[in-house]
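re: that chain from earlier
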Amino acid sequence: MQPPLRIAILECDTPLDRTRAKYGGYGGVFQALLSAGADALGHPGLSSSNKDLAITNWNVENNDTYPVLHDIDAILITGSRNNAFDNKPWIIKLVNFIASVLAQDRVRVIGVCFGHQIVGRAMGVKVDRSDGGWETSVTPMELSAKGQEIFKQPKLSLHQMHRDIVYEYPKGVEDLGSSPRCRVQGMYWPRKLITVQGHPEFNEEIVIELLEARHDQGIFDDTVYEDAMARVGKHHDGVAVSQAFLRFLLEE
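^ sequence. v structure.
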């Protein structure tokens, strides 16, 4: 696939106030991530400043419109406060749409957190609550041999914000890595899909806002909140994951 890369971001949630004021929607958060990845990658003909990333945003949680596949090269499904295993009409529609994208061979799929879980559900595997509880803030994971090849490093640390997981690998996908609370941290199928359970698009500022809000709402007790806050400023490999996403899209 050659630039410009036409990427449709399926926004599955709305950011909290401070994040929304800075980025707009989650599409803006991912645009910042992909732009940083493009600049770091150093690929000839791919730069954030040369319109080589043609990004469009689609609020699929609140609007009933989706991109036409003929007009795009890739789908990116964002995270969400919603459960990927719920049967809300918009989630069912999203699962069916992703299943249809995976059934063809040109448009590629990127899934992040909720989006990773939606891909798992669309491929027929179990997605549900984790027995291990919440996984939050910067968390190290062990990469498989394929994960080390894809991310170009021996280990990976990413912001996490989930208590739902994909329980098994769908047929045909390759394992990218795992953590103690989540065995399926990433999935890969050449020229078809790449997903991560973590949040490469998050940064310390975004996660602090989420942690504070969920602590205030009683979702996180003091122990979970304090543990997550202690790790929120640690090194996070979001740009490395962004580069991997772009290499995936550039695969011939």
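The chain has a mean pLDDT of 97.
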